[in-house]
Amino acid sequence: MARIFSGIQPSGELHIGNYLGAVKNWTHLQETHPGAIYCVVDYHAITGAYDPAVLRARRWGMAKSLLAAGIDPAKASLFMQSDVPEHTELSWIFTTITPLGDLERQTQFKDKSSKMESIPAGLLMYPVLQSADILLYRADSVPVGEDQVQHLELARDTSRKFNAKFGVEYFPEPKPLLTPTRRIMGLDGNAKMSKSLGNTVGLLESDEEIWQKLRPAMTDPQRVRKSDPGRPEVCNIFQLHKAFSAEPTVEHVRQQCETAGWGCMDCKKVLHEGMVQELTPIRRRAEALDAEPQRVLDALASGAATARGLAQETMRQVREIVGLDGLSLPA
Ligand code: SF4
């Protein structure tokens, strides 16, 4: 059985973009891949400017919403990356075999560093830590979105380099498991759904809050009047229907849109019903966790204990391979 690892940034409570783009898939994979490892990658969250109190609140918000979204501590290990320090230990070893040029070519580094006056070294090393996150658990498969495939390629390369340098077949080459839902656009229809752009719907928002966000959301710009036929495939609302509505409803939406059988507001009301149906149980679970927050801590402690056991064994073997194991008296 392939071992699965995936990580998510502690950005606070989930929004429907990261739920549909990653976490919903994680809840399915924990059924087919017992022992899946899911990590809140909080070391990664400190490569830019941040406020420690805000980070603390966001780590909590992310852990709570992952559990509310259906990550089950009995089936998968959920933990904070910083609770397993072996991530950074392996990362250091990987920095010694990773060419600088490979890191400087990473798209994310080029994008972010081009806007900075002083570039923290951590921003450059970010993908090395990401490789360590995956390989520490000797994961074979990593559920990823299309935009993360480049980082996984670096992890595969690191695995090959390590094995070749030390003449071992120790680390696997992790394969991408592409997440079925393609990237979710924000409600403005212009950019990827992202908290910093303010175009999201929070996973734990009330039915009314969701509706207030859907009402003004961007649709097919060519549909100016109700009598104009629409193009569902270019409309973000239709993409959300595909994620939240049953298949017959999706087909009905397509037909009603293309024939101008209904207006966009009718279409959004049906989407709202689908969203409420899927998100209400998640919100209820989050409320239960708010009432019993110790359950969040217990889940994280148990996940970290499992992860540490695996990570310590990997590092014991890695230290032996690279010559950093315990010394004994010369014979
Ligand atoms: Fe989009 Fe629905 Fe309006 Fe068609 S009817 S343009 S799918 S919101």
Task: Describe the protein's architecture and organization.
This protein is mostly helical. It has 2 domains: 5-183 and 293-322, HUPs (Rossmann fold, 3-Layer(aba) Sandwich); 207-288, Tyrosyl-Transfer RNA Synthetase (Orthogonal Bundle). It has helices spanning 16-32, 52-69, 86-95, 100-104, 107-113, 121-135, 149-166, 207-214, 236-244, 247-258, 264-291, 294-322, and strands spanning 5-8, 36-40, 76-80, 141-144, 175-178. The strands form 2 sheets. It has a 3-stranded parallel β-sheet. A two-stranded parallel ribbon has the order 4-5. α1 links the parallel β1 (5-8) and β2 (36-40). The radius of gyration is 22 Å and the shape is elongated. It binds iron/sulfur cluster.
